Amino acid sequence: MTEPLKDRFSLLQVERLADRLADSYPDLDRSQLVSVARKFDDLELKDRIAVTADGIAAALPADYPEALRIVVQTAKLHDFEMFEGWPLSTFVERHGLGDPELSIRSMTTLTGAWTCEFAIRPFLTEHLDLALTACHEWTGSPDPDVRRLASEGTRPLLPWAPRVRALNDAPELGLSILEKLRHDDSEMVRRSVANHFNDVAKSAPSLVTDTLQRWSIDATVDKAMIRHALRTLVKNGDTNALAILGFTTTPRVVVESFEIAPSTIRLGDSIELAVEIVSQADIAQRLVVDFVIHHPTKKGAVSKKVFKWTNLDLGPGERVRITKSRKIQTASTRRYYQGEHRIDLQIAGQVVSESAFELEDGST
Question: Residues of the chain with pLDDT > 90: what percent?
C-alpha cells in the first residue's frame, strides 16, 4: 500500500530539523523540540507541520527577530529533503504577523527550504499592500523559487491554503504580477503562472481570455503555458479559449457510435472507450475531445470529472475511430462507489453522446 502522505513527516524529520537548528542555536533544547512528535499520531500532514512550527517557536528565544534570525540562518546553511524545511516557513506564517516587514523579507531565503506560498497568505490578508509590493519585487529575483513564490502565493485558489478575500474579489491584483513573469525562463515559474490563470478562470473567465488573447499575439510567449492556463475553460467549451488555441468553436460532426466495454466491471478493472466521428463540414476542423465521468458519491449524489481525451484534426467529410483506456481505481483524490457511472462524450466542451458502465464493488 502507498505510504500515507502524513507519514512522510514523522519523528525522523523532526530530529533532523532539530539537529540543523542546533547548528545555528547551540542552546536549543533539542529534546523539547523533538517531543512534539508525540502528538503526531492523530494529526494529518499540515497539522504535524504546524505543531512542529509551534515547537520551534517554543524552543527558540522569545524575541521574534532573534528567533527568525536563527530560522533564516538554518535555511541558509542546510539543504532539506521533502517536507523537512516546511516548519521553518510555517514558523513565520504562524508567529510573524506582528513584524510583517521582517517576516516577508525572510521569505526570499526560507522559500528555498520549503516554499513560502502558504506563509505569505496571512500577510496578504492582514498586510495586503506590503505583501503585494514584495511579490512584485520578487518577480525580478534571480532565484526562480522566489519568482514562483510571487505567482503561486497569490493564486486565488491555492490548494491547501486559506482564501485571501482581496485576491478573489479583485483577481487583477494577481494578474498584474503575472504580467511580469510571462517571459520567465523557468518552466516551473511558467507552470505556476498557468495554474494561477486557471484559478482566475473559474470566477472571471473573460479576464483570463482577454489577457491571454493579448499574450498569444506575442510569438515569444510560451504557447504550452497558455494551453495549460486555459485547460478548464477549454473543457467547459468557452468559445474565446477555444479560439485562442485555434480550435473549432462550433463543430459540425455526427457521432455514429460511442461504446464502453465491458459494461460491468470491478474496482481496479479498466474500461475501453471507443467513438466513431464523422465530419459534416466542407473544411478541416480542429476538435477538442474529452469525456466526463459522473461518479456516484457515498451519500448518493453524483459528482463529475472531466478527463482529457485528445485533440483531433478532422478533414472535410472524414470519418475517424478513436479509443481510450481508463483504469477505475481509488486514488488520493477520488473514491469510487458501486452503481452506474454515466460517461458523457464532449466535443468543444459540448456533450454530444453518452454511455455508461456499472461498477459492482467500490470503496467502503
Answer: 95
Of the pLDDT bands very low, low, confident and very high (cuts 50, 70, 90), residue 362 is low
User: C-alpha cell of 361?
Assistant: 464493488
* Sequence-ordered list of residues with C-beta below 8 angstroms from that of 183, at least 6 positions apart, any chain: 220, 221
Q: Which pLDDT belongs to residue 160?
A: 94
d(C-alpha 251, C-alpha 248), whole Å: 6
Tell me how far apart the alpha carbons of residues 276 and 255 are, in angstroms, rounded to a whole number.
6
pLDDT the model gives residue 333: 74
Residue 262 has pLDDT above 90, yes or no: yes
Alpha helix segments (H runs only) across the chain: 11-24, 30-34, 45-59, 64-77, 86-95, 100-110, 121-126, 128-138, 144-152, 165-169, 172-178, 187-201, 205-216, 223-229, 231-235, 239-244
Residues 6+ apart with CB under 8 A from 333: none
For 176, counting Cβ atoms within 10 Å of its Cβ (0-12 exposed, 13-18 middle, 19+ buried), the class is: middle
Under 8 Å CB-to-CB from 134, ≥6 apart: which residues?
Answer: 104, 105, 107
How far apart CA 189 and CA 200 sit, in angstroms, is: 17
Distances, alpha carbon 171 to alpha carbons 154, 157, 208, 244, in Å:
9, 11, 10, 21
CA distance 243 to 238: 9
Distance CA 72, CA 168 (A): 31
Round to whole Å and give the CA distance between 249 and 218. Answer: 22
Q: How far apart are CA 362 and CA 266, in angstroms?
A: 8
CA quadruple 75, 77, 81, 84: dihedral sign: negative
Q: How far apart are CA 54 and CA 223, in angstroms?
A: 43
pLDDT recorded at residue 2: 67
Chain-centre distance of CA 90, in angstroms? Answer: 19
The pLDDT value given to residue 1: 54
Cβ atoms 21, 70 nearer than 8 A: yes
Instruction: Give residue 83's pLDDT.
Output: 95
